[in-house]
Design goal:
LacI family transcriptional regulator; alpha/beta; DNA-binding; DNA-binding transcription factor activity; 3 domains; Rossmann fold; about 350 residues; Peripla_BP/Lac1_sug-bd_dom; 434 Repressor (Amino-terminal Domain); elongated
Length: about 350
């Protein structure tokens, strides 16, 4: 083993400890015994290990000035506007502080890319851009001791979370529609394994509870993942006389609009439509789509500033951002169907 090729994995094998333990000893973060820290330090100095390209004697205080932002493998190209805006906010903040941003791909629970750059000491922190019910990436990052924040909500109170207030926003939009006279509202959404799906659905249900209006669960459809499934749902909904259809996000709304065009279904006249998320994808829709407008660029910026605070060992708190607007538009106007 050449000294110039010494890695954290090599140190872990030589000392009979985990790579996470070595990372914690090198970074000085995380709970680890003094005896283990001393063993790692001695090995590092003996073999002249140089994390981040610096002298080993000063490794504890050095930073890479790199962070990682995760990209989920199940993102579709249609979701790019959201990620681009979030990433723009992150890069603007990090660039001002002299940091570069790396993108790390996560596919399902396969976190090898993220694990590698953490274990090899290539980054100072991580921003996760999606949270799951059983979140493998956040569990790994917690065990590694590296600073990280999640964009989105998490069931784990120990994870720093930066999110738009989707619960309140979805409650507010649904309440506005109920107030307009829409009592039978159908809902189409994605994976129930995503925290965002649970949050949006919770706000939707709360609006019915507050208004003392009965929610018909037979017109609620989650885990919808194909265009054919959406088409089948639309065909069914047109036979049961609903007042409005809400899509969980712009991806579903755009698919519904395309199917309606192909099937000669008129938005507003034949089907009233709203979305719990707005983006440039819906900007050219005619009629204009009732939706929730979030400031995703600001979301990324706040997440970046929070991560910088964690990297600098400052105290941080979860943030629930209220920067959204309910946009009531022509797609949900109450008109006579004919």
């Amino acid at each position: 083993m050449g000294r110039d090729k010494l890695t954290i994995a090599d140190i872990a094998d030589a000392l009979g400890v985990s790579k996470t333990t070595v990372s914690r000893a090198i970074s000085g973060k995380g709970r680890i015994s003094k005896e283990t820290i001393d063993r790692v330090h001695e090995y590092v100095e003996k073999y002249n290990y140089k994390p981040y390209g610096t002298d080993s004697k000063t490794f504890k205080s050095q930073k890479t000035h790199n962070i990682a932002v995760t990209w989920s493998g199940d993102y579709e190209l249609i979701e790019m506007p959201y990620f681009q805006n979030v990433l723009k906010g992150i890069i603007e903040v990090m660039s001002d502080e002299g940091y570069d941003v790396m993108i790390s791909l996560i596919v399902n629970d396969h976190i090898e890319n993220l694990r590698r750059i953490v274990d090899e000491g290539k980054i100072d922190g991580v921003i996760l851009t999606r949270t799951l019910v059983n979140d493998m990436p956040s569990r790994f990052l917690k065990s590694s001791g590296i600073p990280f924040v999640c964009i989105g909500s998490s069931d784990d109170d120990e994870v720093t979370q930066i999110d738009n207030d989707h619960f309140e926003a979805c409650r507010e939009l649904t309440s506005a529609l109920i107030h307009q006279g829409h009592k039978r509202i159908a809902l189409i959404g994605g994976s129930s394994n995503h925290i965002i799906t649970k949050t949006r659905y919770g706000g939707f249900v709360k609006a019915f509870h507050d208004a003392k209006v009965t929610l018909d669960t037979s017109i609620i459809f989650l885990d919808v993942n194909t265009d054919k499934r959406i088409s089948d749902i639309l065909s069914y909904l047109l036979t049961v006389e609903i007042d409005c259809l809400i899509c969980m996000d712009d991806t579903y709304a755009l698919r519904v609009i395309d199917i309606c065009k192909n099937e000669h279904i008129r938005i507003a006249e034949d089907l009233r439509l709203a979305s719990f998320y707005n983006s440039t994808l819906l900007s050219g829709s005619v009629p204009a789509i009732t939706s929730l407008d979030f400031n995703d660029r600001n979301l990324g910026a706040v997440a970046a500033r929070t991560l910088l605070q964690k990297i600098n060992s400052e105290e941080v708190h979860n943030r629930m951002l209220k920067t959204y607007e309910v946009m009531l538009r022509e797609s949900t106007r109450m008109v006579e169907k004919y």
